[in-house]
C-alpha cells in the first residue's frame, strides 16, 4: 500500500472517529460514573434580517453564534503541531434559518492559509466543514443509505486563487456560498436550500442535526496530514469507551433565542477547563469565552464551583475583557483555581453570564475531575500494608495487593491522558479493591460490578477479576501459574433485558436447567466444548470449557457471589487436567528442569498498547505469570526501561526485553534482545540479527501472513524461514501432528488493551523463567501452549503435554513453586519508587537512553 495514501486515509478516518468525552453530572458520587450526558438541544433561530450570501456577516444579529477558540475543542492533533492561540486557528460558527433554507456562516482566524490538495483530500489542509442533516447518524451502519442533508467543505481563497468547495455527494452542488478574506483569516457564508434537506418543513419544532469543524495546516507541518482540527464542543458527539452516539449534534428550529436564568448557554458560551487536569498541576486555569452575539449583552460572569457533596468551594465574580477583531469585540473572562487543600473528586463548575443590571442571561456548566493527591494516598495505603512482609507468610494475598498497585498504574496512565470516564472508573475500581483488602468485605458503588471482588476474598483460591468495561467483567481462576477457567459476566440495563439476552436462540440446542437455584442453559458450542450460561438478576454469566464439570462449577461459583475457595479451585484444576491427552513420556526429564508459565507477546504505549511497560509487568505477575516478554512494534525502549526500573526497585519478576519486528509481510517476535532489530533488513538478515543477540524468533499470528514468506512457512514449515517457533495453535494442528510437521508452538495473548483476559499462555520446561532460559526452552522445543477454553487444553510436543497434565493432576508442585516465586519477586520490592519514577508517557529513544543511564548512575552511587 502506498504509505502516503495510507497516512492520509487514516487521517481522514481519525477526523470522523472522534473519541473525546464530555463529563456528565454524577450526582453525589466522588468519582464520576463516566457516562456521557445527552448533548444539549441546539436552538436554531429564525433570521430576522434578509440573508445576503456575500461573506460580510452583517445580518447575523438574530442568529446563533458559537465560539470555537480553545485547544480543548481539538479533535485531531498530531506530529509536532502546536496550537499557538486563537490567531493561529479558531472560528466562530453561525446558523439560522429563513424561508429559503438553512443559513450558515463561519468566521475563521488562521494566520497562514495553505491548501494545495486535490478535491478528494482537501480536508488534509486548511478548510472549514459543515454538516446539516435531517436525521441522526448515531445508529447508522456503513452500508445504510445516505442521510438526507449536506456535508460540505470549503477551502479559503489564497492569493489569486478562488475559494473551492467540495460536496462529496454531488458532482455539482446547488449550495450558494461566498468566501471573503478578513484581517487574520476569512469568512464563509452559505445558503442550504430546503430542497437539499429532503424538503423538510421549515417551521419551529423541525429537528436537524448539525456540526461545524475547522482544519488548520501550516507550512511548518511539512508532510503531516491533518495536523490540527477543532470543532464545536467535541463532547456533543461522544460517549465514553469509543462508542460515539453520533457525529452530529441535535438541533431544532425555533422562532428566536431566549435568554433567562434557566437558559443553557452551552451553544453560545465556552466554559474552557481541562476536565481532568494533570495530577502534578497545583492550579486549574478556567476561561469563559463568549460568542459575538451574547457578548454584546454580557457584562460579567459569576463563577461557582461545587464539590460532589454539593458543597460550595468557590464563588467569584469576574469582569469580562474585550479583544477587538475584524468582526467585533470578542469577550472572555479568566480565573485560576488553586488546588491547595482541595480534596480529590468530582467538581461542578458553573458560569452564570450577567448583563449590565446583574441579571442572569443563562449559564453553562462543566464537571471536572480532580485526581491530585489520590496517587499519594493510595501508595501510602499500599506501603502501610507492607507487601514485603505479607509475602513471607501469605504470598497469594501479597499478589492481590500487587493487583491494586497495577490498578493504580492503570489509573495514573489514564489520568495522565486526562480521559475522564476511564479515570473515574479506575479510581472507583481501585477504591473497591483497597476496601476489600483492608476490611475483608466487598463494596459496591451504584451500577458498578465491583461486588464481584467478593469472589477473590480467599487469596489462596487464586481468583482474579478484570473489569475491562463498566458492564463487562471476567473472573479468571488459576492454579499456580496455570489458567484453569475464564468466566464472563455481563451486566445489562434491567432484569427483563438480561432475561431476553439469556433466552436468545443459540445456533445449537441448549438444555434449560438450574445451577445453584438460578436459571441456566448448557450447550455444546463445538465438538469437545461445553458452554454454560446462568441468569442472575441483571447479569448473565457465561463459561466455555472442554470440561463440562469445570464449566458448571465455575459458572455456579461466580453466580453464588461468595468467595471462591481453594477446594473449589482444586476440584476445577483436577477436572480440567483429565481433559488433557494422556501421552507417555518417552525420555526422562533432566534434573533441575521445571515448568513455568508466561506470555511471549505483549504491548505497551511504546507502540500500539494502551498502558505503560511497568503496568504490564505488574499485571502479568498479578495474572499468575512466571515471566512476560514485552514486544512493542519495532521498539525496545519501553521494554528496556521496564527491565531496568524493575531491577532498580527490586521487583524481581522475569521481565524479558523483546520486539515485534513488524513488516508488511510478517510480524516476528525476537527475545531476549539487547538492541533494536532493523525491520528494513531483508528477511533472513533480520532473523540473523536477532539470533546474533542470542534471541529466538517466533512467527506471530501466522494465519495473517501473506506473500512468499507465508507460502514457504505453510508449505515447508519453519525450517526454511530460520525461525524457531509458531505462535498460536495452527488450524491444521491435528493433521500436522499426525504427519510429523508440527512446529514448535508458543502461546501468547498479544495483549494491547491492558487486560490478560485471553488465557492462552506458554508453558516452558527450563531451569528458570529468566530470559536466557526461556529462549533456550523455545529453541529446544521445550514449550507448549495452554489454553483452557480450547478442546485439547494443551497443544504442542508430546513430552510437554505429558508434563503439563501431570503437573495439574499432582497440583501441589505448581502451587508451591508459585508461592516461592512470589516470595522471591516481592520480598524487597519498592512499589512507590517503581510507580512514581517510571515514565507515564512514551519517551523518545534518546530520552530512554538518558533515563537508563541515570538509573545506572544511581545504582553505581549506591554501591559505592
UniProtKB/TrEMBL annotation:
- InterPro entries recorded: PHP_domain, Pol/histidinol_Pase-like
Gene Ontology MF terms: 5'-3' DNA exonuclease activity; 5'-3' RNA exonuclease activity
What name appears for this protein in its UniProt entry? Polymerase/histidinol phosphatase N-terminal domain-containing protein
Taxonomically, what lineage is the organism? unclassified sequences, metagenomes, ecological metagenomes
Amino acid at each position: 500500500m502506498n504509505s502516503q495514501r495510507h497516512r492520509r486515509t487514516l487521517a481522514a478516518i481519525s477526523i470522523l472517529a472522534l473519541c473525546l468525552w464530555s463529563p456528565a453530572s454524577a450526582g453525589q458520587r466522588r468519582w464520576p460514573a463516566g457516562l456521557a450526558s445527552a448533548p444539549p438541544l441546539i436552538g436554531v433561530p429564525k433570521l430576522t434580517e434578509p440573508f445576503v450570501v456575500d461573506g460580510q456577516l452583517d445580518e447575523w444579529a438574530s442568529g446563533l453564534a458559537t465560539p470555537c477558540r480553545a485547544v480543548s475543542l481539538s479533535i485531531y492533533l498530531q506530529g509536532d503541531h502546536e496550537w499557538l492561540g486563537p490567531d493561529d486557528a479558531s472560528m466562530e460558527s453561525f446558523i439560522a434559518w429563513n424561508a429559503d433554507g438553512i443559513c450558515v456562516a463561519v468566521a475563521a482566524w488562521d494566520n497562514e492559509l495553505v491548501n494545495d490538495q486535490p478535491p478528494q483530500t482537501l480536508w488534509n489542509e486548511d478548510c472549514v466543514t459543515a454538516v446539516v442533516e435531517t436525521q441522526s447518524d448515531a445508529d447508522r451502519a456503513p452500508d445504510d443509505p445516505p442521510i438526507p442533508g449536506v456535508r460540505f467543505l470549503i477551502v479559503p481563497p489564497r492569493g489569486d486563487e478562488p475559494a473551492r468547495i467540495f460536496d462529496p455527494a454531488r458532482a455539482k452542488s446547488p449550495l450558494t456560498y461566498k468566501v471573503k478574506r478578513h484581517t487574520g483569516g476569512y469568512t464563509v457564508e452559505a445558503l442550504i436550500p430546503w430542497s437539499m434537506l429532503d424538503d423538510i418543513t421549515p417551521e419551529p419544532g423541525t429537528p436537524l442535526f448539525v456540526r461545524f469543524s475547522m482544519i488548520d495546516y501550516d507550512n511548518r507541518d511539512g508532510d503531516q496530514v491533518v495536523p490540527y482540527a477543532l470543532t464545536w464542543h467535541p463532547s456533543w458527539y461522544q460517549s465514553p469507551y469509543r462508542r460515539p452516539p453520533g457525529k452530529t449534534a441535535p438541533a431544532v428550529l425555533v422562532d428566536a433565542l431566549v435568554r433567562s436564568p434557566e437558559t443553557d448557554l452551552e451553544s453560545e458560551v465556552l466554559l474552557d477547563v481541562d476536565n481532568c487536569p494533570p495530577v502534578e498541576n497545583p492550579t486549574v486555569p478556567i476561561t469563559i469565552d463568549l460568542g459575538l452575539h451574547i457578548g454584546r449583552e454580557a457584562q460579567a460572569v459569576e463563577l461557582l464551583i461545587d464539590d460532589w457533596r454539593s458543597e460550595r468551594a468557590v464563588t467569584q465574580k469576574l469582569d469580562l475583557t474585550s479583544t477587538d477583531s475584524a468582526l467585533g469585540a470578542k469577550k472572555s473572562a479568566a480565573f485560576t483555581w488553586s488546588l491547595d487543600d482541595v480534596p480529590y473528586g468530582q467538581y461542578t463548575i458553573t458560569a452564570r453570564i450577567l448583563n449590565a443590571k446583574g441579571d442572569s442571561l443563562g449559564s453553562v456548566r462543566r464537571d471536572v475531575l480532580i485526581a491530585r493527591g489520590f496517587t499519594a494516598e493510595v501508595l501510602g495505603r499500599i506501603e502501610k500494608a507492607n507487601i514485603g512482609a505479607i509475602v513471607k507468610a501469605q504470598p497469594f494475598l501479597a499478589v492481590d495487593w500487587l493487583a491494586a498497585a497495577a490498578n493504580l498504574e492503570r489509573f495514573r496512565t489514564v489520568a495522565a491522558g486526562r480521559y475522564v470516564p476511564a479515570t473515574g472508573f479506575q479510581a472507583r475500581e481501585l477504591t473497591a479493591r483497597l476496601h476489600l483488602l483492608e476490611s475483608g468485605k466487598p463494596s459496591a458503588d451504584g451500577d458498578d460490578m465491583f461486588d464481584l471482588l467478593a469472589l477473590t476474598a480467599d487469596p489462596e483460591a487464586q481468583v482474579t477479576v478484570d473489569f475491562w468495561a463498566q458492564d463487562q467483567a471476567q473472573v479468571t481462576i488459576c492454579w499456580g501459574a496455570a489458567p484453569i477457567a475464564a468466566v464472563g459476566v455481563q451486566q445489562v440495563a434491567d432484569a427483563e433485558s438480561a432475561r431476553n439476552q439469556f433466552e436468545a436462540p443459540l445456533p445449537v440446542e441448549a438444555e434449560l436447567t438450574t445451577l445453584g437455584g438460578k436459571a441456566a442453559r448448557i450447550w455444546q458450542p463445538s465438538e469437545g466444548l461445553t458452554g454454560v450460561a446462568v441468569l442472575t438478576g441483571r447479569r448473565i454469566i457465561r463459561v466455555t470449557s472442554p470440561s463440562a464439570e469445570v464449566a458448571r462449577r465455575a459458572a455456579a461459583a461466580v453466580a453464588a457471589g461468595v468467595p471462591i475457595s481453594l477446594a473449589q479451585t482444586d476440584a476445577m484444576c483436577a477436572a480440567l487436567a483429565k481433559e488433557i491427552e494422556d501421552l507417555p513420556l518417552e525420555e526422562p526429564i533432566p534434573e533441575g528442569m521445571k515448568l513455568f508459565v508466561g506470555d511471549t507477546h505483549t504491548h505497551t504505549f511504546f507502540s500500539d498498547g494502551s498502558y505503560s511497560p511497568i503496568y504490564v509487568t505488574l499485571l502479568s505477575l498479578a495474572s499468575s505469570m512466571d515471566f512476560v516478554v514485552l514486544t512493542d512494534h519495532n521498539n525496545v525502549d519501553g521494554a528496556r526501561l521496564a527491565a531496568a526500573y524493575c531491577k532498580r526497585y527490586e521487583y524481581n519478576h522475569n521481565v524479558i526485553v523483546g520486539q515485534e519486528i513488524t513488516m508488511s509481510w510478517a510480524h516476528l517476535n525476537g527475545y531476549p534482545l539487547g538492541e533494536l532489530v532493523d525491520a528494513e533488513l531483508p528477511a533472513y538478515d533480520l532473523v540473523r540479527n536477532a539470533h546474533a543477540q542470542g534471541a529466538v524468533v517466533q512467527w506471530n499470528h501466522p494465519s495473517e501472513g501473506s506473500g512468499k514468506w507465508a507460502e514457504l512457512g505453510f508449505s515447508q514449515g519453519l525450517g526454511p524461514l530460520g525461525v524457531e517457533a509458531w505462535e498460536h495453535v495452527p488450524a491444521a494442528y491435528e493433521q500436522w501432528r499426525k504427519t510429523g510437521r508440527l512446529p514448535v508452538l508458543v502461546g501468547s495473548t498479544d495483549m494491547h488493551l491492558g487486560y490478560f483476559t485471553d488465557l492462552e499462555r506458554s508453558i516452558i520446561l527450563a531451569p528458570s523463567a529468566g530470559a536466557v532460559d526461556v529462549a533456550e526452552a523455545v529453541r529446544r522445543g521445550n514449550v507448549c501452549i495452554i489454553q483452557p477454553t480450547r478442546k485439547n487444553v494443551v497443544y504442542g510436543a508430546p513430552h510437554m503435554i505429558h508434563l503439563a497434565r501431570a503437573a495439574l493432576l499432582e497440583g501441589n508442585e505448581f502451587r508451591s513453586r508459585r508461592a516461592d516465586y512470589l516470595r522471591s519477586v516481592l520480598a524487597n520490592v519498592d512499589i512507590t519508587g517503581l510507580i512514581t519514577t517510571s515514565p507515564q508517557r512514551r519517551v523518545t529513544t534518546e530520552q530512554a537512553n538518558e533515563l537508563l543511564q541515570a538509573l545506572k548512575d544511581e545504582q553505581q552511587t549506591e554501591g559505592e
